[in-house]
Amino acid sequence: MSKQASWRSIGAVVLAAIAVIVAADYAFHYVTPRIWLRQVDDGVRDFAHSNPRILSISSSHGRSMDVVGKELARRTGESDVMVSVAMEAGKATHFQFVLDERLRPLIEERDATGRRVHDHLERALLVTEWWDSCSWEKGRPAVELPSHAWTLGHFVRDVEQQGITPINRNYLRWRWKRLLSDSVLVTDRGRGAILKDGMAELRGQPTGRTAEEEKAFTEWWLKYNEGGKRCLFSDDQAQAYAHIVDYLKSQGLDVTIVIFARRPGTLSEEAIQGTLAEYSARMREFADEHGVRLIDITTRSPLGNDDYMADYDHVNAQGNRKLAGWLLDGDLAFLAQHTTPTSTVGMTAR
Known about the structure:
Elements: H1 3-28, H2 40-48, E1 54-59, H3 64-76, E2 82-87, H4 92-107, E3 123-128, H5 144-148, H6 152-162, H7 169-179, H8 184-187, H9 193-202, H10 211-227, H11 235-250, E4 254-259, H12 269-290, E5 293-296, H13 317-329
Parallel strand pairs: 1-2, 1-3, 3-4, 4-5
Helix pairs in contact: 2-4, 3-13, 4-11, 10-12
GO molecular function, one term: hydrolase activity, acting on ester bonds
């Protein structure tokens, strides 16, 4: 066989293999849904290319603010009224990193005349909940920032100092996932949903958790929220909250802290009276000390159990529509108005 024929055969095999993988990927879309959520890069990009009045910084729960922003735009007619930057698995220290490393240069950016590029910015929202105030346990690998908040510059600097490590490799993994985010095979890595949902389909069983798994999952959430009281306001997280609020105020922004809604079925009375009550009280004290508005919707939102995703943690599409309307009709109705130069002290919503 000639070399030319050999290379032609190899090329045919490679093309056939690629075709099989693409076909399998397409077929798996019918087995389990592709999940790809907005990340820090998306929010930062939107902020860089617009001039919003309102900036929302949050953990992953704050993706609900994307829907609030769209509804607010519909009501006000302002196409770029609000931008939300949500940090996956975010702690307060992560929000601080995103603010300092990704957003601050844009907030302070000026054009050739010395005028601020984002000169419409008037308000800032910090959307958070009790988990964000608890530090990770000591020794846990710090994988969230490389995965969800780093730029290429952060990666290069870390490699120069540390070499390639299991931590900074997460930057490369997530860049790969982002590049191929339309692929179920790629985005399912770490979830294992394809195999589980595929087996359920073959057996003629419904996908998702069994009744026993559902019960165990609910019990886990109840205990989890009850146990949160032990770690609230770790020193580094409390300092990060203060840094964020103080910086935003230093830029002349009207700041509002929103304690986000939790799924009712994950909250026992012990969690409500313990973890949630203490977090709310301490955050209210923090807000008063820093002269910012506090809105706590942890247990008083209109959301029911069916308004949350299967993770029991994040609001689903129907819930977000419900929540957006409720917030803009009530606690966040003021977002439709331009700010006034009056102090925000004493504007704690209860």
